[in-house]
Write a structure and sequence with these properties.
- The structure is a single chain.
- By secondary structure, the protein is of the alpha/beta class.
- The protein has 2 domains: 196 residues, 2-enoyl-CoA Hydratase, Chain A, domain 1, CATH 3.90.226.10; 46 residues, Orthogonal Bundle (Lyase 2-enoyl-coa Hydratase, Chain  A, domain 2), CATH 1.10.12.
- It is 46% helix and 19% strand.
- The protein contains 11 helices and 11 strands.
- Strands 1-2-4-6-8-11 form a 6-stranded mixed β-sheet, with helices on both faces. Strands 7-9-10 form a 3-stranded mixed β-sheet. A two-stranded parallel ribbon has the order 3-5.
- Helix 5 crosses helix 6 and helix 9 packs antiparallel against helix 10.
- The longest helix has 19 residues.
- The protein is globular and about 60 Å long.
- The relative contact order is 0.11.
């Protein structure tokens, strides 16, 4: 039986986590959820990581949860696996670095939910995006409803969940769920690289503060805290001196 794993490679300021399944589709079992959490924690502890790219090998990004495992759960077990997934995906959302989901093939159910925990989602145009849980008599279990609502509103939650039908990456972009769309796999890698290059402009500390504010943190306090950090001093000095800030030149 094929099992999904998540590999992690860190090259300077770029970390790449990849779902891998030998001879099968990538699915999210409780073991994989724990691995996602462990990878997020490893990235959080790593020095100098500015971007995490969450990607996958094989035919799809992630096909969804492990339905065989879910079918054996009672209500208590379902609550436990929901909390397990939330711990993993929240760890991704709370990373101080920028996170990008590179989506090909399909991101369905839990596959979309893990992508929604990222800051950006970039997909190939023929990717299938959806939350089909209602066709199984279920609802999304890992904050998919609240994250789609935050991106586009309740009507887009209904579009994805009530019909249980997948949409194209282009339609998902119109719904606000996907940020950018590429024509093919080569174009997808180029789009991801372009976004990484754009992100060089932002101070790592400022981005960390912005992410905290987006999660409901005190914006005034975050603004004030920037003035106690060396990057604010460097950024304002670079502006006055008409030169790039030091972090813009970092690899």
């Amino acid at each position: 039986m094929s099992t999904t794993d998540v590999t992690l490679a860190i090259d300077g300021s770029i970390a790449r986590a990849t779902f891998v399944t030998d001879g099968g589709l990538n699915v999210l079992s409780s073991t994989v959820l724990d691995r996602v959490h462990a990878v997020a924690e490893e990235v959080r502890r790593a020095d100098g990581v500015r971007v995490l790219v969450l990607a996958a090998e094989g035919k799809v990004f992630v096909a969804g949860a492990d339905i065989k495992e879910l079918s054996g759960l009672d209500a208590a077990g379902a609550l436990a696996i929901s909390e397990r997934g939330n711990r993993a995906f929240d760890a991704i959302e709370h990373l101080p670095c920028v996170t990008i989901a590179r989506i090909h093939g399909a991101a369905l159910g839990g596959g979309l939910e893990v992508a929604l925990a990222c800051d950006f989602r970039i997909a190939v145009k023929d990717a299938k995006i959806g939350l089909p849980e209602s066709s199984l008599g279920l609802i999304p279990g890992w904050r998919g409803i609240s994250r789609v609502r935050a991106l586009g509103g309740a009507k887009y939650v209904r579009r994805l969940t009530h019909t249980a039908a997948a949409v194209s990456a282009l339609e998902a972009q119109c719904l606000g769920v996907v940020d950018d769309v590429a024509d093919d796999a080569a174009g997808l890698d180029a789009k991801v690289d372009e976004r990484i290059a754009e992100l060089r402009r932002g101070s790592p500390h400022a981005i960390r503060m912005i992410k905290q504010a987006l999660r409901g943190g005190d914006e005034s306090r975050a603004f004030a805290d920037c003035f106690a950090h060396r990057e604010a001093k460097e950024g304002m000095a670079a502006f006055v001196e008409k030169r790039p800030a030091a972090w813009m030149k970092e690899g």
